[in-house]
Amino acid sequence: MSNDVVPRANGGIVVPTNSNLTFWGRLANWTPYRIFVGLATASPRRQFLILATFPLLWVLTQHLGPMLQMLRVSLTDAYPVAPGVEQHFTLDNYKRFFEDRIFWQPFFRTLAFASVFTFCTLILTYPVAYFLARHVSRKNQMLMLLLILIPFWVGEIVRTYAIMILLGNTGAVNQLLKWVGLIDRPIPFMYTSFSMGIGIVYLTALYMLLPLYSALEKLPKSYNEAAADLGASAWTRFRRITLPLTIEGISSGCTLVFLISTGFYATPVLLGGPSTTVFAETIAGFFHVAGDEWPTGAAFATIMFVAAMFLTGAFQKLMNSLRKGDTK
Amino acid sequence: MNRGNRILLSCVYWAFVLYVFVPLILMILMGFKDSKFIGFPIRSWTLDWYTGVFADAQVLSTFGYSVAIAVLATLVSVVVGTWIAVLLEGRKFLGRAVIFGLAVLPALVPGIISAIAFRIYARWLGIEPGMGAIIWAHAVHNVPFVVLVVMARLSSLPKSQTEAARDLGADPFIAFLRITLPYLVPAILGASIFCLLLSFDDFVRSFFLGGYEPTLPVLIFAKLKSGMSPEINAIATVALILTAAIGIWAERFTRRMNKDSKA
Predict the structure, then answer these.
(1) Check: CATH 1.10.3720.10 for A92-327?
(2) Is the ipTM of this structure higher than 0.85?
(3) Pick from A165, A169, A301: which is nearest to B116 by CB?
(4) Pairwise CA distance, residues A16 & A25, whole Å
(5) Which residues face B231 on adjacent strands?
(6) Which residue of chain A has the CA closest to B121?
(7) A34-68 pLDDT, tens per residue?
(8) Could you give all domains of chain B from N- to C-terminal order, each with its CATH number?
(9) d(CA A151, CA B23)
(10) A303 touches chain B (CB under 8 A)
(11) Which end of chain B is flanked by fewer CB atoms within 10 Å, N or C?
(12) Which residue of B has its CA nearest to A260?
């Protein structure tokens, strides 16, 4: 089989042989490789199957698998199953959620907190993104964006700790206020929804800033100029042009920040107090104790996931309809 | 009017810069305080906390453990993510949207839920909590970021380049290895650095899937729960410098590579 491909020297003409081919040439002429390629590319269909099989298996078993397994465990009465015990399917784990205030209260608190923190992040970062995209030269834009990026490479725990030092009773803010003479006794910022909010906004601001920035950057300056020529005031221009045309950025930024804030565990534990228990702590509680609480934890995590997906989905729908309504 | 706006907005920008930098700077300063008590003002300074950290075998081995986990998890996510991206980009087939949705799913699942789901799944697969479980969870969680970055880069590769290679006799594998893959290198490197940082900084998955040996964020968390001390500041500062340096370097590096390949 390889006889008709390997060129031979004849009549003194030098033709390439295996010895002076590049690595790639030698690979292409290597019999096992040729057989493999021949088999793999016999038809476009087979080629596609070879390309697609591994990714398909991976996303099904590794990405979807854990979620489905969580759903399955949430419907059982015992997990992990002890030897000799029969496992039954039940909805009791979901019922438990509605039965006790200490379960559903943190759930609604989490959703409320996440919504408020998302809104705060939006208000805080929109002017920053606007300034970068509209008022700074191209060259400086990158530098100034990079400057903001640096703190966001630092991990969640380290940044949470930094907030603890900032807001503690002997923290920088309290000491500063005392030194200025505004207060005599430190304000107890820590272990409240305030400290938690500062921490979560600090951790998520970038995920809002980047979508906003890229939406604002795409917006042609001429739109605003045209509106200004037609006599629109700055506020009208913002409300009628900038805001509607950056709704996509707002929508994806808010979705990201909302999903991330509902998932925080360490930050509420470190910055929050007993009155700010979030659902993540409730869920985690079922996994610290003996295994028989796992199904309840799985059910609660499922409730949280479905609620978060539903709310962000509805939010995106709303934003989309707003955008369409405005451009008509 | 416009000028006033501009000045106001630039004040907001610099206030935001202060907001993101000041907490970290204060935390770094506190690591040099010559007292066990965390709080201001700082009256005398010391390097003892740092010498203590570098002499602490547990902290050093935790650093090594975290770095090893990050590197191994990144290798897995880069290979898998690139493969998925190559399948999805520029191809139309039945179920493409579903595969794309599933491919980015781990990035959308809130942290605690993802950690719980991985914990349950690891138990089901028989993976013991520990290094292997953490690497697996980090790898799966980071795949979406690789997919998105590589797909974006791949969409700008002119189709004519691979077609030319095919016309000249390259089979699909060699065309991929010699044309597509070199073109993807900046994206793959950028995504790798991002995955390294995500994995090194990750707390919630490491916490729920870890065995007795803590990763660095888990160690800091455990120390914080038993009380604040400048020792934690020293550990956190070393971690901070490491991650920020890698981040800045990667940013410059990928920018330069993107520029080179465009020119």
Answers:
(1) yes
(2) yes
(3) A301
(4) 10
(5) none
(6) A66
(7) 888 888 877 888 888 888 999 999 999 999 999 99
(8) 47-262 (1.10.3720.10)
(9) 10
(10) no
(11) C
(12) B110
